[in-house]
Amino acid sequence: MTSTPQASVQPRDSGHMRDEMLSETNIEGDENSPRADYIAAIDGSIATRTETDSLGSMQIPADAYWGIHSARALENFPITRRALYNYPDLIRALARVKQASARANAEIGVLEQAKADIIDRVCEEIVGGALHTEFCIGVIQGGAGTSTNMNANEIIANRGLELMGYAKGEYEHLHPIDDVNRSQSTNDVYPTAIKLAMVFGIRRLLAEHRLLTNSFAAKGREFNDILKIGRTQLQDAVPMTLGQEFTGFAHTLMEDYDRLSEVIPWLNEINMGATAIGTGITADPRYAEAVRKHLVDITGIEMETAPDLIEATSDAGIFMTLSGTLKRAAVKLSKICNDLRLLSSGPQAGLGEITLPPRQAGSSIMPGKVNPVIPEVVNQVAFSVIGADATVTAAAEAGQLQLNAFEPVIAHSILQSLAWMTNACFTLRINCIDGITPNLERLSMQVETSVGVVTALTPYIGYAAAATLAHTALTTHASIADLVVSSGLMKAEDVARVLSPERLSGMVPITASLTLPAQRPELP
Fold first, then answer.
1. Are residues 291 and 392 in the same domain?
2. Residues 451, 498: Cα–Cα separation, whole Å
3. Closest Cα partner for 78 from 38, 46, 107, 113?
4. 48, 96, 123, 425: which sits with the fewest CB atoms below 10 Å from its CB?
5. In this structure, are residues 512 and 498 in contact, taking their beta carbons and an 8 Å threshold?
6. 107: containing domain
7. 131-155 average pLDDT score
8. Do 374 and 233 have their domain in common?
9. CA dist 10 → 92, 119, 154, 281, 424 (Å)
């Protein structure tokens, strides 16, 4: 082996976009894309190297870290504009799996320590952000993820060769399969990597989800004393406070935080060492435990080897569980956004109880119009998550015998849902919830003129009398309190106490006795 030069690779990801943001990079048409390089290599318009597999030889761009297996994927799967480099969590997870495998293989003596060290070093570079644009193939692919696994193997091998002082493609010194993929199969690497990527994604989502929950809770405290009319079936109901409404939003989000957190331990069951179908063929019996141990050490995530590797290699149940939990969270968040749009509707002819921060001009034809664009975009994220769950369900059901060939679309669907939900929670908090203000005058007017408050008086004047007064109030627009007093059913001071904001909202129980007509119960 030649001496190792001090080569370095700088991260090729452009800009400072947050990792969970997914882009629409056009791998089919961008003149600077890896696919364009691949086409140029075929045309002979750029420098190339020749690589060979069991199907024959192909020309590969000379400076590409990917190789012939990746080139075949570019040729075979021109399906999506989203390449693997749009899924940084998956790339980092793949690097961690390859890194743990190299360490395990060196530990049990089936891979030279020097080669393992080179693989380890390259994987650290990838985790740090380097070489991501080399993960160039579309995320949707046939082969149960084989192209993704080979893309990673080739990138790691060719960067390793570069560090060792060799040219890309000189695989006799460091081979993508014999060395980087040692003791592995796509069928244990890919599901382990996508589970690990999903854990990364859930953790990021949970962080944003908690911040959003805290924002709703803060608004609940801020709006604690603001009385409003509650509604059932879009009709006026009984009073409550605006704070109670927003605190309710916070509590429903807290429930989904708990459910999402509960999924993580299930994702930590892996099938490394299963190789092709779960029998562990070609892998040393010591490898499964060694790679598990190193993966735990590298990631800090406690993982367990599945007790039945054959079952674990074919089962997609955990993906349905995660997808279903995400759908639940998305549906409930979308319902909250529906409520925000209703509560802010108007501003003159709608409910108009709250004002959302104005984020953009709302119309190209109606001057001054401002739309609830942030809740609307969150609604659309929820629709996408709902559709993704249907995709995951169909893909999980479609697996046959010892393998599910459709894990690529499962991975895409769930990782996209995690990323979009994370971004939705972020934009809803920053661009909407934190800036919501109450329309105090309108809220007060609605409570004062609402006949819904008569419900609070029914224990003292009876349902029939309350219904009569409600109809009278609707017809005459008179105050319920005035009607009760003028009818002689209750004294003014007693009506005032029953209809106090604290009593109406249930915030503070009233224990003092009131002067009531005969046969009516006292307040508890």
1. yes
2. 14
3. 38
4. 48
5. no
6. 34-182
7. 95
8. yes
9. 16, 17, 18, 38, 31
3-state secondary structure of 501: helix
Q: What's the mean pLDDT in 113-125?
A: 98
Q: What is the CATH number of the domain that holds 244?
A: 1.20.200.10
Distance CA 477, CA 450 (A): 9
SS3 386: helix
Dihedral (Cα; 133, 134, 138, 139), 10-degree rounding:
-80
User: Which of 3, 147, 215, 363 is flagged as catalytic?
Assistant: 363
pLDDT in tens, 278-326: 999 999 999 999 999 999 999 999 999 999 999 999 999 999 999 999 9
Q: Could you tell me the CA-to-CA distances from 38 to 91, 130, 412 in Å, in that order?
A: 21, 20, 24
- Whole-Å CA distances, 406 to 130, 135, 136, 148, 316: 28, 20, 19, 13, 10
H-assigned helices in 284-372: 287-299, 309-314, 317-343
CB 268 within 8 A of CB 304: yes
Q: Which two tokens stand for residue 18?
A: 């947050």
Q: Within 10 Å of residue 44's Cβ, how many Cβ atoms? A: 9
Q: Is residue 81 part of a domain?
A: yes
Specify the pTM: 0.85
The contacts of residue 508 (CB under 8 Å, 6+ apart) are 502
Q: How many CB atoms lie within 10 A of CB 232?
A: 9
Q: Same domain, yes or no, for 273 and 127?
A: no
Q: How far apart are CA 361 and CA 276, in angstroms?
A: 56
Known catalytic residue at 101: no
d(CA 50, CA 96): 29
Q: How many CB atoms lie within 10 A of CB 30?
A: 12
Q: 10 Å Cβ neighbour count for 63?
A: 12
Q: Residue 159: which of 189, 218, 119, 187 has the closest Cα?
A: 119
Cis peptide before 176 (omega within 30 of 0): no
Is residue 132 located within the same domain as residue 207? no
User: Over 50: is that where the pLDDT of 270 sits?
Assistant: yes
**103 and 249 assigned to the same domain:** no
CA atoms of 149 and 139, how far apart (whole Å): 11
Backbone angles phi, psi at 284, to 5 degrees: -60, 140
Element (H, E) at 51: strand 48-53
202: confidence class by pLDDT, cuts 50, 70, 90: very high
Helices (H), 31-172: 34-43, 68-76, 88-107, 113-127, 146-164
The answer to whether residue 445 sits within a structural domain is no
The DSSP bridge partners found for residue 52 are 57
Q: Where a domain ends, among 182, 210, 229?
A: 182
Each residue's pLDDT tens digit, 358-405? 988 767 677 667 889 999 999 999 999 999 999 999 999 999 999 999
pLDDT at 416 over 80: yes
CA 234 to chain centre: 31
